Amino acid sequence: QITLKESGPTLVKPTQTLTLTCTFSGFSLSTSGVGVGWIRQPPGKALEWLALIYWDDDKRYSPSLKSRLTITKDTSKNQVVLTMTNMDPVDTATYYCAHRGPNSGGGAWFDPWGQGTLVTVSS
Amino acid sequence: DIVLTQSPDSLAVSLGERAAINCKSSQSVLSSSNNKNYLTWYQQKPGQPPKLLIYWASTRESGVPDRFSGSGSGTDFTLTISSLQAEDVAVYYCQQYYSIPWTFGQGTQVEIK
To answer: Number of Cβ pairs closer than 8 Å across A and B?
Structure first.
């Protein structure tokens, strides 16, 4: 059974850097084809894909946020870390990590997802 | 960016009746290399993360009830719930994974009439 769980601060100040950790079980990020992504959802709004890291350390970022995002993995710890710099109140959202669906071609659907963590950006 | 526009934004359907949600893409998500549509559907219940229902536009995820079905190709897609159950009350999202950035529709709220 695949499970993922997000952890990190619930409150950050504007201009600060957010660091979120996704700890997972039930799969290995060293297995060919595997990936872990991050998706966020502002309160009452739609989903927005942020970043994804593959088993071979290849990375994909949303172009609109690429300059602010870094995704890394620690295979031995079964963790993926997302950092987002220069946080702003508009970045207030629930941040989810999710397992990349197998055989998603060149893209990625996500299954399953973690429960998410709400991050509020406020001074 | 590929923009996905869902319609309607919300719908209310009687128990046992059919519900249909449309997802229109600003460009085709059909790959000529493998003839597959790079589109998926999720269900999100209040306070929960999204749950995968359908991938490749019409392939039902294991364990998803067969009252859920996906159809369409190219730029126009539909998620159909053939007989709405109380537990189907949720927001439904489509997502394209054809090109980066992978994008989601704005969501459709399904309620019981």
So the answer is: 64
